[in-house]
Amino acid sequence: DMKKTILLCGLLATLLQACTYRPIIDSNGRSGTFDNSRAENITNDLILCEKLAKDNTNFFINIGHWVLSPTMDTRYESLMRKCVSQRGHSVLN
């Protein structure tokens, strides 16, 4: 059935796109977690958070998380956003 194929392709594209999620960070702002700006650590923090998110995510976990998430985030996106925020960066998306 053509509709099922199109729907499946759309779902797969959405979930694969999640692996390319890059948070938008307000480098002038602070999340309130730290007294000083953490902007000088953005590159290192993004690399570390990306590794952490990839190591703790697979295709099936992403599908399950995406289906149950009220914001339609994948587990990868959720882990990236939380990791970067916890490192003191203001994440805008």
How would the blueprint of this fold be written?
Elements: H1 2-17, E1 25-26, H2 42-55, H3 59-68, H4 75-86, E2 90-91
Antiparallel strand pairs: 1-2
Helix pairs in contact: 2-4
Any overview of this molecule?
The chain has four helices and two strands; from the N terminus they run H-E-H-H-H-E. The protein has a two-stranded antiparallel ribbon with strand order 1-2. It starts with a helix and ends with a strand. The protein has about 90 residues and is mainly alpha-helical.
Helix content: 55-70%
Q: Any idea what the radius of gyration is? A: 15 Å
Described by strand count, sense and barrel closure, the largest sheet is: 2 strands, antiparallel
Instruction: Label the structural class.
Output: mainly alpha
Task: Figure out the total of helices.
Answer: 4
Spans of 5+ residues with little confidence (pLDDT < 50)? none
Order of helices and strands: HEHHHE
Backbone shape: elongated
Main β-sheet, spatial strand arrangement: 1-2
Give the termini separation: 36 Å
The proportion of strand residues reads: under 5%
Strands, count: 2
On the 0 to 100 scale, the average pLDDT is 82
